[in-house]
Amino acid sequence: MSSPRTAKGRKPGYFADPATDKLLQMVVTLAGELSVVRDRLDLIERLATQAGAFDRGKLETMQLTEADITERDAGRADFVARVLRVLDQDLEEITNPEARGFDELVEVLGRKD
Amino acid sequence: MNMQHHHAMLPRANRDEAARQDFVTALRAHMGSTLMPGNQAVYEARTKGAFVAEHGRLPANRQEVAKVMKRDPFYQFWSALQRVSQQAIWDSVTDTIERDHAALNQAASRIAAENPAGGVLRLNPNLPIPGYVTAADIHLMPGGYVGQDPAEMRQGPLYDRGLYLYLDGRCGPENDGLVHLLRQALERHSPGFSPKRILDLGCTIGNSTVPWKKLFPDAEVTGIDVSAAALRYAHARAEALGVPVTFVQANAESTEFEPGSFDLVTSSLLLHETSASALPRIFGECRRLLAPGGIMAHFDVPQVRDLDPLQAFLASWEEENNNENFSHLIRELDLAVPAQQAGWPASALSQPTIAMTGDVYVRSADSPRQVTWTVLLGQA
User: Fold this and answer.
1) How far does Cα A51 stand from its chain's mean position?
2) What tens digit of pLDDT does each residue of B318-329 get?
3) Mutation for B interface: A5, A6, A8, most B CBs within 10 A
């Protein structure tokens, strides 16, 4: 069983266009992930410097293995899913009958066909 | 900055999860120190004038302030960011729990088996869960206090870590600062009062139960809650902290304890998460459970009765946007009224003033707001 990611209850909107609410959430998530990367990069640079191994030139010339590439691809896919999680919530409202009204369901089904 | 006490049951964030938590903490600190005061500036500069232009007078209450503030782009961004950052708190902790819940469950089982402090856990799977707990996920914590699977305890660690991030550590390394504020009020009311049997209502993870046992080591301390997930975690957490407490799954409106079983019945931030009909029942149950001379002591969200309309409007944010559905009623309510409905004589009740202080609740002098907490004491 996985943990729920959406809270049950009111879902207030804040802007005239609901898309703006979603965009803001994406922007904040992106800013958070950028902050995570900066923290991590900072650690790596400090460790590498401590070890006397930091060399900016190697960033361009390093050869990646197949395993390296697979690991990096998976990390990138996770990153994208995290940034776009707000859209999963929309899908959850479509697939979870308790999460939206009947009229909305009819409207959504009509739109898809 | 991560100052929370790393007891054995606290979820262990890895480096990236911790970085996400640090980011959301930084975001909320910026919002609190820089953006929140902007609402006052925007009100003075723009929205108050807009209201006056439309109505020929100042806004008379928070509802009228709401009409103009909700149209203002600055308030819209502040409010939306507040909501997004609240969701981000839970998301950041959920990542850790998703990755690590098997290890957390193992730690809980091991601690429960060893039971090093000698505490007790008594669950009642047949207990009906009140609607005010399940209607919405309070504080936007996905799954709420109860969670989806009654055999799981993951709502407990989620709440423990999320609460610390929400408060930015202002309730101390064990999220227990409110009890120390309440204790001060109790000591002023009855100097030297030394209860032997203490009951903590709506205790969730026991963060306000454990400190009572620390303050009164000779007392028998019991915490009750309706959530089995919260209590499973509360028990393991208290054992990990080495503090023997009894946790029982029960509803504060009506328990199975004998009349006169306790010298102190207390709650911390429970009342605003119940309902208008539950309040008199809870106060009535306190009266039934107290021995002669015993005291009930309730601590809850700050009052807004004396605030100007803008501050009252901003204080109502939690109700409309953070699923604290009953909180504004409590903020405007004289708690003596439901207590008297429950049979408490007015002469037995008092509502001492506790303001935020620099030493317990507010870690730094970063909050210019002086708020007055809701406190109700009653002596049987």
Assistant:
1) 33
2) 888 999 888 888
3) A8
